[in-house]
Amino acid sequence: METQSQFDVIIIGGSSAGLSAGLALGRALRKVLIIDNGKPCNRQTPHSHNFLTHDGHTPADIMEVAKRDVQAYPTVQFLDATVTDVTGHNTAFTVTVNATTHYYAGKIIFATGVKDIMPYMEGFAECWGISVIHCPYCHGYEYRGKITGILANGDTGFELAKMISNWTDQLTLFTNGAATFTDEQHKALIKNNIRITDSEISHLIHKDGYIEQVVFKDEGSIAINALYARLPFVQHTDAPEKLGCEFTEQGHIKIDMINKTSVPGVFACGDNTTAMRTLSAAIASGTLAGVAVSKDLTQEQF
Ligand SMILES: Cc1cc2nc3c(=O)[nH]c(=O)nc-3n(C[C@H](O)[C@H](O)[C@H](O)COP(=O)(O)OP(=O)(O)OC[C@H]3O[C@@H](n4cnc5c(N)ncnc54)[C@H](O)[C@@H]3O)c2cc1C
To answer: What's the superkingdom here (predicted)?
Structure first.
């Protein structure tokens, strides 16, 4: 029996990846519900870059245009809510919203992104996405040639320093405790004029998210314009795990070439599946998931 709460597909997460999947499915005449609670990971960043046709636009503007594109398709509905549970199996899933209301679908797409875990460091969260940045391809150009820090240690710190040296030669690695570089890495960092500071950081001084100083616990501070950081993350929801989806060692939802998870009928796309965090990658991933779901539905119904 067809009810108002029955859909072909429910997409959980309505940002870059989810809207992109919704666009493909709307154009495939599928009855779709996109549920989103409005917390994309890039919401604090002033401008998005490295995104063809929208380079330098605000994340909110990009999403407004994206949502308008998808709203043009009458079989796609939107719900501003939090998904609290997903149960069931291929062709018969139940999605619980705000712990009370139920919606039903044959297929599920998780486009839920990830939640970055900020270190306990005053000023860090306020600067995140503004002058404390995750990716030089997204924001490195704006800080080219500037006095730049990297908050990282060991192999991660070494690789980041190597990568970011492309954008500036005024680099300091803040290891925030004893450095753990190998002798070879240490020599290479010194050879490339990258300073290493192992003092523990107390807090960041900033003005409206624009970093000015890294302040140490003992004493002293260093003036910088930008700080790169690789943060640990968690999935936004444990629903994929509860459904039985497999995860990679890094904590991403495991998917195949066409975004199928290890659970039949459950697909995933965007940041929750990959370390390659860019808008264009999330959008491409959403398109692929949408097309793959639609193809499966056709296959089952034919
Ligand atoms: C600070 C920062 C700056 C960035 N800058 C750039 C840039 O300049 N250029 C670029 O190309 N990329 C940039 N990125 C990367 C880019 O933002 C991401 O790759 C992209 O947003 C991923 O899209 P997504 O849809 O997978 O996840 P997100 O955009 O994070 O969206 C996930 C959505 O799912 C929703 N959601 C999660 N769980 C639930 C639930 N249980 N119920 C309902 N809704 C839920 C969230 O509210 C959110 O709207 C940046 C990332 C960060 C963190």
So the answer is: Bacteria
